[in-house]
Amino acid sequence: MQHRAIRRYNYHKWANERTFDHLKSLPDEIYDHQITNVFPSIRETIAHIYQVDGMWLSVMSGDTFDQTKSVIGELLTKMGDKSLFHMQDLYNELTGEFDSFLKSRENLDAMIDIEHPQYGKRNLAISDLVEHVVNHGTYHRGNITSMIRQQSHSGVPTDYIFYLYENL
């Protein structure tokens, strides 16, 4: 049976892909339209999800805080203009890296040490960090749905139950 962390991450990929596909079906201008929300535009929200996913992959891979900061800089450089199609390509590349990481671990419940200068040191399970990545993405996909609705378009359902119905 598939580990719950992999199943949850697969849901995260599925939900992000549904969001990308839905955005591509809408008028181009909604992607950059400035909105009062958690982020000023859908473009910035998608960039944030990508950057945070990459940051946590770095942490789970055992990188130090300084190495992770460097990874964040590399991700920012890769994003460039942050066009919707470019971000989807980058996201697909990152999910491939995530998939390889998750498949390479014998025990996704293994504990790892993470350290942050402000928040301190913690010993956490990789699976709990994956759950955080998924939860973070769910929160911001909700922001994107709100932004789409503010622009008089309907969102796309990305609830976990819909993933289960489609994939089990």
Measured by DSSP, the beta-strand proportion falls in: 5-15%
- Mean pLDDT figure: 96
The order of strands across the largest sheet is 1-2
- The tally of helices reads 6
Q: What class, by secondary structure content?
A: mainly alpha
Helix content: 55-70%
Structurally, the number of domains stands at: 1
CATH topology: Four Helix Bundle (Hemerythrin (Met), subunit A)
Main sheet overview: 2 strands, antiparallel
What is the overall silhouette? globular
Poorly predicted regions: none
Quickly give the CATH architecture: Up-down Bundle
**CATH top level class name:** Mainly Alpha
At the fourth CATH level, what is the homologous superfamily? dinb family like domain
Spatial separation of the terminal alpha carbons: 12 Å
Could you spell the SSE succession in H and E letters? HHHHEEHH
Strands, total number: 2
Cα-atom radius of gyration? 16 Å
